[in-house]
Amino acid sequence: MSRSQLFVCGKDGGVTDSMAGEMASTAASKNIGSATREAESRPSRRPRFDSDRRGAVRSLVESFISLFVAVLLFRTFAAEGYMISTGSMAPCLLGFHKRVECPTCGETFPFGVAYDTDDDSKSEELARGRSRAICPNCGQRAIDLSEVPRNHGDQLLVNKQAYLYRSPQRWEIVVFRNPAKPTEAYVKRVVGLPGEKLQLSDGDVLIDGQLARKDWDRQRAMRILVHDHDHQPDRDPGFRSHWQLVAEEAVDVSAAANPRGWRIADNGFELREGNERRPDREPFHWVEYLHWIRAGGLHETSVALARWPVDLPPSSVPSIGLRFDPQTATLGFTGVLPVEMAQRIADLTEDVPFRQALGELQAASHIAPLIDGYGYNPNEGGAVPNPVRDVMLSAHVEWERGSGEFAMQMTDGSQDFTVVFDASRREVRLFTGAGDAAARTGDWPASLDKGATIEVSLFDKQVSVAVNGQSVLEPLPFETPAGTPAPHSAVRFGARGLDVRVAQLKLYRDVYYTSSRARHGVNRPHQLGDDDFFMLGDNSPLSHDSRRWDEAPVHRSLLLGKPFLVHLPSKPGRLRIGDHEMHLRMPDTERVRFLK
After folding, report:
1. Among candidates 591, 495, 488, which has minimal Cα distance to 268?
2. How far is CA 175 from CA 33, 79, 172, 403, 564, in A?
3. Distance (Å, rounded) from C-alpha 129 to C-alpha 146?
4. pLDDT at residue 559 in the model
5. What are 69's strand-pairing partners?
6. What are 220-257's pLDDT values in tens digits?
7. Neighbours of 583 (CB within 10 A)
């Protein structure tokens, strides 16, 4: 079996067995109680007592046999448990993995490992790609996994009757038989339905030539965490916070006679302008997200430079990709320019403008567009990252005083989308571009008065807005012109005329469906038959699915059911007895959840 396949390699009877225990216990107690009452109503003779005891034991055995038959019927016709082995649905559903805590920022994330490899194995595969991880939150590299215990995959409870009276819906998770090997069970997400023409384009799914868009619940179920502001390195001088005051707000408020703008407060930001009489005349104060990375990357960065230094022969500059373009008068670089290399080149010349430009380039090269990275996947090389525009910002906002406005603004690289929460008018408005007329208007949610979680997304080329998980505006679809470069700063929030605090800042991205090594639905639409489905995994770079199989479709007859509960997720635990330490599987109650 290919290591990139996510299939359900075994069946787990955890939930079924626990139900069996309860039913058996109840049945046993009823029969034992009945036998005891019969014994009390008859003369106390030893032979009769032995007969009653044998009758109770017989009843108990019969109860267990009946229970076994009931459980067997239940698993055959109603629900059954499966364990996930590989990671093609990560991070939504996890296969065998290691639970990693970043030593720099403290973020906990799963890192996939081979399901058929022993923990103690020193195979070439583990030594090459599975012994080191990269934190998806702060970018810390080479995190040692040698002492991290391996953890089992998620265990699902599957409703086997789900599709007897209806067909799977788009974006549902489905368990089905492997078309090439029916003895194996796979778990994927349905993206193409019977009779449709499906094609993947720029990470999205096109159905009959139209973009397939997800509703709000599906967006939240499929989103992938990019950055959590609550987890920042405490003692890392090389790290830069991803949330920064915009240039005009970057002032030393402690030295200002009349401090204005945002202040850093714990793991969030606060603004104190609630006493403004005319907040509509005040400027917005902004905090923007800059996707700072430590090293690597394939993005292009350039700064202005009028001329190349006279005292610096090009042949003396290390061949690291530094470029000077005299026509555009720019100095450029691909990826992150290492500070040591920039310093080495600066020491070769006395040209002040060049040295300044080189310093600007080195700092700016750390800011990159968002890409479809997975902290779950081993860093084995070969995969080319894709820039993503489908982002979602989540923040907890607390209004304290004032009648001003709070705003969240996003861009796809071609136009801005601004959601304004107006406390004076008590309404929510959505603006596109620089227009003064609102494209969408909605009522002020009452939950905002006491503080609420606001979420805004650009998933599937539509603007969606929700407060405490409930949509408050009709989604606004839009188009992004072909060839539009991905923005370096895609998200920001701002306010004016308010005493307000913003915390719990989290940035997510949508699944980006890759086309590398794909056979079906990439260069041209794939036509599905009347009983065929097109399946894709959330972990698109790793997933072996309808894009890559010899035969793309999954026939209706291969469907096994719909997973509805992650019922026994686990996490590693440790038990120390003296000098001996044991690794145990512990229930991870935080990840027990129903699946939509």
Report:
1. 495
2. 43, 12, 10, 51, 11
3. 12
4. 97
5. none
6. 999 999 999 999 998 888 899 999 998 654 433 333 33
7. 14
**Degrees to nearest 5, angle at CA 594 with 593 and 596:** 135
CA distances, 15 to each of 11, 63, 157, 511 (Å): 11, 19, 8, 31
Q: How far lies 215's CA from each of 219, 463, 465, 480, 579, in Å?
A: 6, 11, 11, 20, 53
| Interaxial angle between packed helices 352-364 and 339-346, expressed in degrees from 0 to 180 and rounded to the nearest 10 | 170
Report how far residue 152's alpha carbon sits from residue 112's, in angstroms, rounded to the nearest whole number: 10
Q: What is the pLDDT of residues 132-165, one digit of tens each?
A: 899 999 999 999 998 888 888 999 999 999 999 9
What is the rounded CA–CA span in Å between residue 276 and residue 90? 48
Residue 277 token pair: 């009489």
Residue 378 confidence (pLDDT): 87
- From residue 452, give the alpha-carbon distance in Å to each of 198, 275, 405: 39, 22, 15
Nearest one of 60, 104, 87, 91 to 3, comparing CA atoms: 87
Q: What is the pLDDT, as a whole number, of residue 16?
A: 32
So what's the pLDDT on residue 382? 62
Confirm if 199 and 525 have CB atoms less than 8 A apart: yes
Report the C-alpha gap between 190 and 172 in whole angstroms: 6
Which residue spans within 433-479 are E strands per DSSP? 440-443, 452-457, 462-467, 470-471, 476-477
Region class of 329: left (phi > 0), else alpha (psi between -120 and 50), else beta: left
Tokens of 461: 């080329």
Q: Are 255 and 204 spatial neighbours (Cβ–Cβ below 8 Å)?
A: no
- In 3D, which of 417, 413, 512 has the Cα closest to residue 457? 417
Contact 536, 543 (CB under 8 A): yes
Report in angstroms the alpha-carbon separations of 136 from 139, 223, 227, 293, 371.
6, 14, 7, 10, 11
pLDDT given at position 207: 98
Q: Given CA atoms 250, 252, 258, 264 in this order, what sign does their dihedral have? A: positive
The verdict on whether omega for the bond into residue 385 sits within 30 degrees of 0, i.e. cis, is no
Whether residue 581 contacts residue 574, with contact meaning beta carbons closer than 8 Å, is answered with yes
Identify the three-state secondary structure at position 404.
coil
- Under 8 Å between Cβ of 431 and 405: no
Residue numbers of the chain with a pLDDT score lower than 50:
1-6, 8-46, 67, 70-71, 73-74, 118-122, 125-127, 249-258
Say what the pLDDT of residue 29 is: 37
**217, 134, 379, 517: CA torsion to nearest 10:** 20
- CA 545, CA 181: separation in Å to the nearest integer? 13
What is the C-alpha separation between 156 and 567, in angstroms, rounded?
Answer: 6
Instruction: Report the 10 Å Cβ neighbour count for 72.
Output: 11
Please spell the DSSP secondary structure of 295-322, one letter per residue.
S----EEEEE-SS--TT--GGGS-SS--
Round to whole Å and give the CA distance between 178 and 170.
19
**At 554, phi and psi to the nearest 5?**
-110, 120
